[in-house]
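It would be a great kindness if you could assist me with a short task in structural biology. The matter concerns a single protein, recorded as an amino acid sequence and a row of backbone structure tokens. The record follows directly beneath this note:
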Amino acid sequence: MDIDDIRFRIAAGRRILYREGCDSNVGGHVSARAEEDDGFWVTGFEYLDQTVPDGVVKLDFDLNPLVGHHELSPAVNFHALIYRTRPDVNAVVHVHSHHISVLSSIEGQTVGMYNVLSVLFHDDQATYFDDGIKAHTDVVEALGDKRVVLMKNHGAIVASDSVENAVIEAITLEKAAQYHLECVAVGGTEIAEAEVLGGKAMYRKHYLPQVWRANLDRIRGTDPDLFALLDD
């Protein structure tokens, strides 16, 4: 196995999410569309920092196993539906990180532009309220063409163009939610819209890949067991 294998990238992404404060008990998911577009790779019930490449399985879009076996959350069906309906999406991250979960308790609330990191999510967020009756796959309709959906009293889903970007966006969303909550508490104000619009493209171009590389280098030290699985 090499560092470009999608199973390794998903496992590394989950380790990074854990190290960067996005622990989600055993219910967090990271998935990626298969290159063959016949299904997607996804992880099962386990802590984010437990994941190894062999624990990443491939399912078709009807959730039939194609490669590997793992006990999977029923919620992976919203991953399948996102891939079916959003050809622009190649990776999905679902987390229950602390500050996102707190912010999601406010119905209809999205992350405000209280910090430069937040510009990544400008005009790219939706919200979803599960009333306990509707099918939980309705969250996909709520997501629509956005990149992020905040699920009330639950967490968030990030739908992106690569595993690397989805992971860093999920980490950044958690940090942006923390800034939002703390800035509101002290009476802070949001960034001017012109700065937000000017910064978003730059952050997508430079911040996302650089932060992925930095975190991958960091977990070489914190998670040597993962890197020991790579071929010499």
User: Anything to note?
Assistant: The beta strands are 29-33, 40-43, 56-59, 65-67, 91-95, 125-128, 148-151, 155-160. The chain has a mean pLDDT of 94. The chain has one domain: 6-216. The radius of gyration is 17 Å.
